Amino acid sequence: MMTLLIPILLVVFIWALFRTFGTTPTRTIKAGQFNPTPAPVNSAKETWKAPEPYPADVRDPMEFRASAPTATTTTTNSQARYEKLVVKGIVYSVNNPTAIVGNEIVALGDIISGVTVVKINVDSVEFELDGQRWTQRVQD
Questions:
Q1: Is residue 71 within 8 Å of residue 134, measured between CB atoms?
Q2: What are the sequence ranges of the domains in the chain?
Q3: Bridge partners (DSSP) listed for residue 111
Q4: HSE-up of residue 6 (Cα within 13 Å, Cβ side)
Q5: What's the start-to-end Cα distance of the chain, in Å?
Q6: Cβ contacts of residue 104 below 8 Å, gap of 6+?
Q7: pLDDT tens string for the chain (140 positions)?
């Protein structure tokens, strides 16, 4: 039975291959005869307007740069030199909150560049210098 089915299946397989790949299109188009039907034209005129550019204050996520800290209170001249203290992240817990300021990990009471870390909140860090306090939020 197998010896009879194998040649029959081989012939059917070859016939299917020639039928699929070996045939030419039944309708041939001669040169100059191609006349496609035009696409329907929309009677309403569509105008394309270029989108507005992004505002200049939007941060490019692909650009690496240090963000300037934002102070919530006015800063004195002695505090202005410490504005380079950028709060990059906060790991908040009730018992032991810590923050990443610049390239250092600080906790409550730590001193960084002469400035004391007074309080660490969920989204900001409070600093003190010469009796003056200011708060800086986490920078994007």
A1: yes
A2: 77-137
A3: 116
A4: 3
A5: 76
A6: 112
A7: 888 899 999 999 998 888 888 766 566 666 666 666 666 666 666 677 777 776 767 766 666 655 554 445 555 555 555 556 888 889 988 899 999 988 889 999 999 888 999 999 998 999 998 889 999 888 76
- For residues 108 and 131, what is the distance between their CA atoms, to the nearest angstrom? 16
Give the CATH number of domain 77-137: 2.30.30.830
pTM: 0.42
The helix/strand/coil state of 107 is strand
Give me the residue label for tokens 């790949």. Answer: 21
- Identify whether the C-beta of residue 126 lies closer than 8 Å to the C-beta of residue 109: no
